[in-house]
Structure formats: structure tokens, C-alpha cells
Amino acid sequence: MKDEGFDPDVVTCGILINAHCKAKKYDEAIDLFREMEAKNVKATPHIFCILINGLGSERRLSEALEVFELNKASGFKPEAPTYNALVGAYCWSMRMHDAFRVVEEMRKCGIGPNPRTYDIILHHLVKARRTEQAYSVFQQISREPGCEPTVSTYEILVRMFCNEDQVDMALRVWDQMKTKGVLPGMHMFSTLINSLCHENKLDDACKYFQEMLDVGIRPPAQMFSNLKQALLDGERMM
């Protein structure tokens, strides 16, 4: 566009920066951002958020923090998505203390945290196999007014416990989810049923398979095959 004599506007720059970040071309994204600054093209909060997310995921934490400060210096009051991006940046570098500090800052500003904030934290705790801390955070969410766990939150916890061969804890989380009226999806059913089969808890596996059918979710062929094989291995019939 510049070769044709046109300077990109803020919308075009945002699209290009997003494309660079998705392609993991973060240096190009930063160069374009600097070019915007030089030409007095004011970045939007969304652009700042894209950069913080991208740089954070590459563990370029100092640069992500710099962009966050530039967002504030530009006159924009950080909103929940921007703070969530900052939380994620700290989590990618496993600076969980700083991530929780940002959560407290969000509370003081009266803009959160929201379920997405905690999902980000849980994702990284689970990835680091910090099971007890993840469950502690989950319990905190459950007690926090206005921040009810979503189906995504429950899915993170159920998958975590199933992967850690703690299916009884997965069932405890599942029961709490049902009590709250949150409906599981096919992936959650699949994770739980496969784990129950692995633990040879075939009565429970059949129970949740039937529950999945009852709520109108069609099981994938692989799940049906796995359950059938588990029953055959246990010398049982469907």
C-alpha cells in the first residue's frame, strides 16, 4: 500500500498486526506498531491487546509489559481484555505471583476478574501440572460473586483430573457443574468416559454414556468403540 502512495489507517494496521502475530512474526508486528507511532496513528485498545497476547505467548514479557504501559500512556484505561492479556503474559513466563497481582489490580479498578481471567490462569497451572493450586483457584472462583465458572472452566478441571488419574476428583467437579446447571459438551463427556474406562469403572462409564445420549449428544465413533472394547475386556455385554 505504501508503494502505491497510501499510508495504512488504524484499521488496516490493526489487521496487519493481527496477521503478523498469528504468523508469529512479532518483530514485523512491533515494527508496524512503531511506524504507527512515528506517523501519529493512534493505536486502539484492541491493537495493544493483540500485541500483549502475542508477545506474552512468546515469553517476550518485558516487551509485553512495555506495550501495556504504552496503552495506559495513550490515555486508554485498561479494560478486562487488556488485563487478561497481561495475566496471560505473566502466566506464559510462569510468574504466577505477578499474574495474581494483576487480578488484584483488576478488582481494585472494578473491572473484574472475569471467568476468562481464571481460565487463563488455570490453563497454565494445569500445563505446569500444579494440580493442587489449580483446584484451589477453582474453589476461589466458585466463591467469588459475579464470577461463576463457565463450561470452559469445568472442562479444564475435568480434563486435568482425568489426565492425572484422579477420576474421583473429576467426578466431584462434574457433580458441582451439574448442580450449577452448566451443561457439559461432547468433549467433556468423551474425556470423562474414556477415563472411567481406563480406571475400569464401567458402570459409571455406561451411566455417563447414557446421560450423553439423553441430552441429545451423539457420541463419536471412537468413543463408542472404546467403551465397547472396555466392556468386552471386562467380559460384559452392552
Automatic annotation (TrEMBL):
Protein family (similarity comment): Belongs to the PPR family. P subfamily.
The record's PPR repeats, renumbered to this chain, cover 9-43, 44-78, 79-113, 114-149, 150-184, 185-219
Taxonomy-wise, where does this protein's organism fall, top ranks first?
Answer: Eukaryota, Viridiplantae, Streptophyta, Embryophyta, Tracheophyta
UniProtKB keywords = Repeat
* Gene3D superfamilies named among the record's database cross-references: Tetratricopeptide repeat domain (1.25.40.10)
State the superkingdom. Eukaryota
Under the heading SUPFAM superfamilies, the entry gives: HCP-like
Its recorded name reads Pentatricopeptide repeat-containing protein
Q: Name one Pfam family in it.
A: PPR_2
